[in-house]
Amino acid sequence: MNVDRIISWGLRLYILAALLFIFAPIVASFVFSFNSDRFPSLPLGHFTTEWYEVTFSDPLVLQGFRNSLLVGVIASLVATTLGFGAAYVDYRFRFPGKNLYLALALLPPTIPVIILGLAMLAYLSRVSLSGSVWSVILAHVVMCAPFAMAIIRLRLSQMDPSLEAAAWNLGANEWTALRTVILPFTRPAILAALFITMAVSFDEFAVAWFVAGLQETLPVRVLGFLQGQVSPRINAVGTVVFIATITLVVAAQLLLMRRAAQSAPATSDK
Amino acid sequence: MLLWQLVFFAFPLLFLIALSFWQVRNFRLEPALQLGNWSYVLGSESFWIAYGRSWLYSASATVVASCLAFPCAYGIAFKLGRNAQRFAIFLLVIPFFTSYLVRVYSWQIFLTDAGIINALLEQVGVGTVPMINTFFGTLIGYLTLTLPLVILLQFFSLVFVDRSLVEAAHNLQCGRMRTVFEVVIPSARIGLVIAALFCFILTFGDFVSPLYLGGGAEATLPILITDTTKSGQQWPRAATIALTMIATLLAVAFAAIAFAYRTRGK
Fold first, then answer.
1. Which domains does chain A have, with CATH numbers?
2. Is A35 helix (H, G, I), strand (E, B) or coil?
3. What is the pTM of this model?
4. Nearest CB to B109; choose among A7, A40, A118
5. Is the predicted pLDDT of residue A270 greater than 60, yes or no?
6. B106 CB near a chain A CB, below 8 Å?
7. Tens digit of pLDDT for each residue in B64-84?
8. What residues does each domain of chain B span?
9. Which CATH architecture has domain B45-261?
10. Is 0.85 exceeded by the ipTM?
11. What confidence tens digit (pLDDT) does each residue in B191-237 have?
């Protein structure tokens, strides 16, 4: 049995090592964003917020930040609406070609972003939509909608299909039933989808880089920094973006957990 | 949603096919039906070198990531308590919401010749080991991108392995390693293959790691695409490269799925 213990601890150490590998760059970026040396190395210089000041007085960064915010908000709203519609159609109706429909709806995340970016760029410039914030929004909706749909679909699959029918029997028309039965039931999932898609859009750089033209979003600006010389500004931007996205994700997580807590007593009633 | 995805997802990809037959004249795109791009790209030696290199890089990244991830996923699935398990999963999800770019930049801090790791090695007396601008650097970047995902996917397939099978194997005096290789891995095969497949797809399409950690001197297909697109107006050629990538990925995906779902012969 002793060997079992050793193996068990060995694996735990291994897991720890893997997590260390995964989190090393995240932590390092955080630490060095407050470090005074221009060329990051050990030992650390002194604590400073200089890089944050430099970064956020850069008009390009500010513009990128505004664009990212705009894109994130609009893309997540549209993507979640579309995702809800798609998930609801999938939940309510059976129709020929449904598998194709699902494939089309869930496929985009598997296409390499660089190919998607190129295709978007070529296509959107053909219909004269490229090089603006709107083209980024369009592209991000395409990329985000599948996530929204997957999340909302999961929630709908937990719903008793007879609930909606019961509402119709009680005299609700289709629209009222949708509004008063389906929407409240899926609300946590909808909110979660909003946050998740916003986080996805906020971090996406490849497609945005292709289609944005001069309207850079924040990650595209980071890519620009990366092409230039070494600068701790990347760390500063990264830390800010990290905190923003992680707040969104934790909010989504909390919503989903509250949902679980709410539906738990409901199912135990039966 | 259907309409939207049709218009802004399917159409662009189909348009890519059309684009690969177009031509560039006087720096302007012109619709045409000619095979010039195909013969140019497929006839160019640098394309095939990049193609082979992409294969090599992605395949080795897939093997390395799968092998490194497996003990981790196995440990999380079988050795951790419920709460620790949930916490580990939570930690593994976090990287998806951090900027990949920033993480790659951060690795530069570690790996450059004057970076943290080399500074430590210096103190130990090993001397400077070049790490950035080598394949090792690229590999680190690839792992940054894929390792959390591979671990998660492997974990989800391992969790659903029937525990009674494992116990049965133990009761039949099957050794520990043998149980892992002959009971656990075969029953989780589908998930393991899917994880590897995702790793391959992601690394095949990634241009950041080979460019910023691998130095970019040795082009892979994605680098070729960005170069062709961003410098000059050679979009049709870039489209051609992209289409060969898609064809390759589809072939790999079908092969992998066929392998995963193959009924166990013999």
1. 58-269 (1.10.3720.10)
2. strand
3. 0.77
4. A40
5. no
6. yes
7. 888 888 888 888 888 777 788
8. 45-261
9. Orthogonal Bundle (1.10)
10. no
11. 888 888 888 888 887 877 777 777 766 777 777 777 777 666 677 77
CA distance A200 to A216: 16
Residue corresponding to tokens 């939207």: B4
Q: Which long-range contacts (CB under 8 A, 24 or more apart) does A181-188 make?
A: A182/A88, A182/A156, A185/A155, A185/A159, A186/A84, A186/A152, A186/A155, A186/A156, A186/A159, A188/A155, A188/A255, A188/A256, A188/A258, A188/A259, A188/A262
Verify whether the Cβ–Cβ distance A238 to B148 is below 8 Å.
no
How would you class A260 by CB atoms within 10 Å of its CB: exposed for 0-12, middle for 13-18, buried for 19 or more? exposed
DSSP 3-state assignment of B30? strand
Q: Do A15 and B88 touch (CB under 8 A)?
A: yes
How far is Cα B221 from Cα B236, in angstroms, rounded to an integer? 15
| CB atoms A12 and B75 under 8 Å | yes
Q: Identify residue A234 by its one-letter amino acid code.
A: I
Q: Let me know: does B75 contact B242? Beta carbons within 8 Å.
A: no
Please check whether residue B87 is in contact with residue B93, taking contact to mean a CB–CB distance below 8 angstroms. Answer: no
Q: Which residues of A touch B120 (CB under 8 A)?
A: 42
Q: How far is A232 from chain B (nearest CA, A)?
A: 10
Q: How far is B264 from chain A (nearest CA, A)?
A: 27
| Contact criterion met (CB < 8 Å) for B242 and A15 | no
